[in-house]
Amino acid sequence: MPGRAHSTTNSTGRDVTPIMGYRKFWAKRLTPAPVLPMSRAEMDELGWDSCDVIIVTGDAYVDHPSFGMAIVGRFLEAQGFRVGIIAQPDWRSKTEFERLGAPNLFFGITAGNMDSMVNRYTADRKVRSDDAYTPGGESGARPDRSVVVYANRVKEAYTKVPVVIGGIEASLRRIAHFDYWSEKVRRSILLDAKADLLVFGNAERQLAEVAHRLAAGEAIEAITDVRGTALHRRSVPVGWVEVDSTHLDTPAKPAPTPDPYTAKRQRARQQGDEVQVVRFVRDLSPERRDRSVIRLPSFEAVRDDSVLYAHASRILHVESNPGNARPLVQQHANAQLWLNPPPLPLTTQELDQVHELPFTRTPHPAYGDARIPAYEMIRFSVAIQRGCFGGCTFCSITEHEGRIIQSRSEASVLREVETIRDQTPGFTGIISDLGGPTANMYRLACKSREIEAACRKPSCVYPGVCPNMNTDHGALIRLYRKARELAGIKKVLIASGVRYDLAIESPEYVRELAAHHTGGYLKIAPEALSEGPLAKMMKPGMGPYYRFKDLFDRYSKQAGKEQYLIPYFIAAHPGTTDEDMLELALWLKANGFRADQVQAFLPGPMATATTMYHSGINPLRKVTRASEKVYVPRGTRQRRLHKAFLRYHDANNWPLLREALRRMGRADLIGNGKRHLVPSYQPRGTDNKPTHGERPLHTQHTRRPRRKRKN
Fold first, then answer.
1. Which of 241, 278, 285, 631 gives 292 a disulfide partner, CB atoms 3.0 to 4.6 angstroms apart?
2. pTM of the model
3. What's the Rg (C-alpha) of the chain?
4. Crossing angle, helix 204-215 and helix 68-78, to 10 degrees?
5. 8 A C-beta contact, residue 91 and residue 152
6. Gap between the Cα atoms of 99 and 142, Å rounded
7. Is 127 in a helix, a strand, or coil?
8. Nearest to residue 78, comparing CAs of 20, 26, 36?
């Protein structure tokens, strides 16, 4: 085992090795590099004969702490390893994967900052015309399912070099999951990629341990006990207790099926192993609980039975708190997919250390003057926290980063603001964002460490803010004030999403936001209006929205500013009916909102709302064969209709809306008055094609009727 510093205790109360507490690898004397090399010529200039780790990424390499490959690369460099980058390689052959040679320790594979399928396709499964993470914004620089393709190419080039996959694509596909683009349940990405190890979440803690253990000569197959990793095994280790997942939820079997434990008992007897299989765990001692693993239904079972899929999804989310989560195991044919508990959150000191690594904060020089849109968006922003305890069912943040907030120190954030001011080209004095997954969860946490470690609730703010949650925004207010008082800083904007149900707990925060940190418009996300979809999203009702709006409008007026809230809504989310969307359209019209762009629900892998979409079952409650059924808007036509309700003012949508209103018995909303939702006429130059059930509109009816003159 490599040398370590003394362990410390983090927010979960567990002892953990600090991420910078490992003895540095021998190559530390050769680092840091001005920029991580992307070619053999750059390696030669650095005097490197080889890399210890090579990161393959689907994004252009930007040496900025908002880009995953830069954080991982610079972090491993700080551990003393030589790190190279292969960015957006041509995946059609193995040639570009050989450009830096074979790494001494492992290849790290990531699709980039986004899931490659989300990056390449819209919610309607249409190919996007651009890619914000590519020079020039051009599309087509990465393959579908990038992690699988890249990993297979690496294995083709270097059969014996370990492959570790990570990033959001691997993280959210770490288990059998529903894939929206193929409309089927797919295996764990670990197996499809033929990788040796998967690291999920923000993986600094896992990568530090894995890299140092490999450097000490340990085989990748022996690294099975690192939190935040997934691996495949032939069998459950001796001495472990298997817990049947149906102890936690009990979906009845649709028909007699073979007991998955029978074969396991037979194999155990043949091999002389002692693997105990139990269905109930009430009497397990703490020692035996620490050696227990939850057996999920197999890949084949969840693939063929949507109720078992919903059950497995619920168990996965229940077992997501690093303070109490147990390992999970799921059979995939002859392989046993093993998921260790989530990684322990980083401490404030550790997060500071990560963000203060020697980033250049610019794209790699090889890109020249090419514009990378994602970099342009974030180059003057600062991440102040990780994680989100909102638990929105359609969002992947909680599954990836966890619900325990990890915050940087005030001093570290201010130092980064000064670094932007002094070093970032083109800085004009405006910080574009101080935020994170959510703008206003900085330093918010459960009042009790013991309660936090034991809690299994999916959200700390739904159906209301938990009484155990500290909602004091004082630390964030002080940070905002100190940031804007720095010399050379003209304005600090907040572009991250504000959780308004939290903000109203601190009116002083809303005052600060309205008076100093809003650039005329503030975007917030009620997401829906009706209780049906809101309950399936785990979002608050409109009451908190109205209270926030009252505060924001009042404080904007006091500051002498004319500012507006811009609400965001999602179309076609599970639980949303046509009537719900009509109600929302009428609300938008009554309040004078005309959305330029709308977002349709995209079922991302592993999200709770995706489970609803696939199974038609609500996994927020105990899953049984009689579980609550969820209405799911399906098909291109209905999804298009729900988007059309959000853009009721677009004349191209009027034929579709008129047909829907007649079908819903609301033809009274068709007309040319203020009380109507859509006109009865169709302007020239718009979509005048009739939809099914609507008569063609004649040319003489395409103009507004003239008003009669008053005598």
1. 241
2. 0.90
3. 27
4. 40
5. no
6. 18
7. strand
8. 20
Q: Decide if 545 contacts 606 (C-beta within 8 A).
A: no
Beta bridge partners of 83: 53
Residues in the chain: 711
- Provide the pLDDT for residue 4: 42
List the chain domain ranges.
235-333, 380-600, 650-711
If you write DSSP's letter for every residue of 634-689 in order, what string do you get? Answer: -HHHHHHHHHHHHTTT-GGGHHHHHHHHHHTT-GGGBSSSTT-SB-SS--TTS--P
How deeply is 627 buried, as exposed, middle or buried, from its count of CB atoms within 10 A (0-12, 13-18, 19+)? buried
Mean pLDDT per 10-residue run, the chain (711 residues)? Answer: 46 73 96 97 98 98 97 98 98 97 98 96 94 96 98 97 98 97 97 98 97 98 97 91 82 46 44 48 62 95 96 95 95 95 97 98 96 96 96 91 96 98 95 96 96 93 95 98 97 96 97 96 94 96 96 97 94 97 97 87 96 96 91 94 96 96 97 95 75 36 38 34
Tokens in use for 599?
Answer: 């977002």
Residue 218 to residue 196: CA distance in whole angstroms: 14
Residue 686: count other Cβ atoms within 10 Å of its Cβ.
14
Tell me the three state secondary structure of residue 546.
Answer: helix
Q: In DSSP terms, which residues pair with 599 in a beta bridge?
A: 570
How far apart, in whole angstroms, are the C-alpha atoms of residue 235 and residue 233? 5
Q: Is 665 exposed, middle or buried (0-12, 13-18, 19+ CB in 10 A)?
A: exposed
Partners of 179 in the β-ladder? 184
Whose CA is closest to 493, among 429, 568, 408, 567?
429
Which residues on adjacent β-strands are paired with residue 295?
244, 329
How high is the pLDDT of residue 686?
79
Tokens standing for residue 706? 């003239």
Report d(CA 253, CA 180) in Å as an integer: 26
Q: What is the pLDDT of residues 573-607, one digit of tens each?
A: 999 999 999 999 999 999 999 987 788 999 999 99
Question: Looking up tokens 């917030």, which residue turns up?
Answer: 524
Q: Which of 207, 206, 241 has the alpha carbon at shortest distance from 227?
A: 206
Report the distance separating Cα 74 and Cα 65, nearest Å.
9
Cα–Cα dist 626/307, whole Å: 10
Fold of domain 380-600: pyruvate-formate lyase- activating enzyme (3.80.30)
Q: Return the percent helix, strand and coil in the chain, to nearest 5.
A: 35, 15, 50
Phi and psi (nearest 5°) for 177? -145, 150
Q: How far apart are CA 415 and CA 434, in angstroms?
A: 13
The first and second tokens of residue 651, run together, are 């004349």
